Amino acid sequence: MSHIYIMHVKKAIFPVGGLGTRFLPATKSMPKEMLPIVDKPLIQYAVEEAANAGVEQFIFVTSRGKSAIENHFDHSYELENNLLTKGKRKTLASAQEMLKIPGSYAYVRQQEPAGLGHAIWCARHLIQNEPFAVILADDLIFGQSTTKEMIKNYSSGNMVAVMEVDKQKVPSYGIVKVDNNNKDLMQISEMVEKPSIENAPSNLAIVGRYILDHKVFDILEKQERGSSQEIQLTDAISSQLGKVPCLGYRIQNERFDCGSKIGFLQANISFALNRKDLSSEINNWLKTLTR
Ligand code: UTP
Fold it and tell me: What Rg do the C-alpha atoms of the chain give, in angstroms?
């Protein structure tokens, strides 16, 4: 009898140290990751996706001005007491649903926004010799099952989530070249961060979900700044190709780039249309717009 061995990935890193400049002025004093999709901040969707995948330790790489994230995952005694006194049990439950057993959340500071690769490296002391997940909260994917599916398909090395993007958008992404583009799990042979349209090896873009081998920290340690003068995670994974295999996992559900205004607006409408308590009202209103 053959058994499928599923690797247990216990830790996830949430890099939330970026400046969110595409979303100014909203993100001047508020973390981008606290922007709500309907009534839940982006970072809560990300944490729920990780928990749904069996993750037990949630590591946030934060920066100055991001304390709202820490507070969101903690008690708010004044609010909870108020709701309790008023007997608003359902509302109280929604204010408490992100509390986890003590020690589940860890925070480390990235002192300067030196790039995604640098943010991940800042969490190196919190990861032992084990694979770990990385979730970018502003890449919101319907269903909150992507990380779970990736872990199910992971055995060793590195894995990145990918999706096809319009050719014009290629210069905004890490782009991969794969050997078998017709499959949902692909062997990656080349990877380049933000290529020009002419130099892009394909239009398969990396989106914000990764399962990484801890050896990536050794590479990041010596990593030079790359595109946008930032330490790029793509460059670190790319430099391991040939030694450490890297799989591309084609995401199965719709994804929204909530770090961009248009992606954020689309996500809010799509998620509202999927909510029992909101769908008919929002649907009726949308119809009035197209009349
Ligand atoms: P983005 O490039 O989407 O985020 O990085 P950003 O830099 O905050 O946004 P813009 O481009 O200025 O609008 C993807 C993720 O990586 C994190 C971000 O917080 C985001 O979740 N990140 C990025 C860091 O944690 N540190 C960095 O130095 C850069």
Answer: 20
Residue to mutate (ligand 1; options 13, 14, 19, 209; most atoms within 8 A of CB):
19
In this prediction, residue 183 has a pLDDT band, given cuts at 50, 70 and 90, of: confident
Helix (H, G, I), strand (E, B) or coil at 287: helix
Q: Is the residue at 3 inside a domain?
A: no
Q: Which atom of ligand 1 is nearest to the CA of 17?
A: 25
The structure tokens 């919101």 sit at 140
Give me the pLDDT at residue 286, please: 94
What's the number of domains the chain is made of? 1
Helix axes 77-85, 89-96, angle to 10 degrees: 160
Q: Residue 228: pLDDT band by 50, 70, 90 thresholds?
A: confident
Q: Is residue 223 part of a domain?
A: yes
In short, whether 259's Cβ falls inside 6 Å of ligand 1 is yes
The range of the structural domain enclosing residue 21 comes to 11-289
**How much distance in Å is there from the Cα of 273 to the middle of ligand 1?**
28
- The structure's pTM equals 0.94
Residue nearest (by alpha carbon) to ligand 1 atom 22: 18
Identify the CATH number of the domain in which residue 242 sits: 3.90.550.10
Q: What is the pLDDT at residue 133?
A: 98
Q: Is residue 272 part of a domain?
A: yes
Q: 224 and 121 in contact (C-beta within 8 Å)? A: no
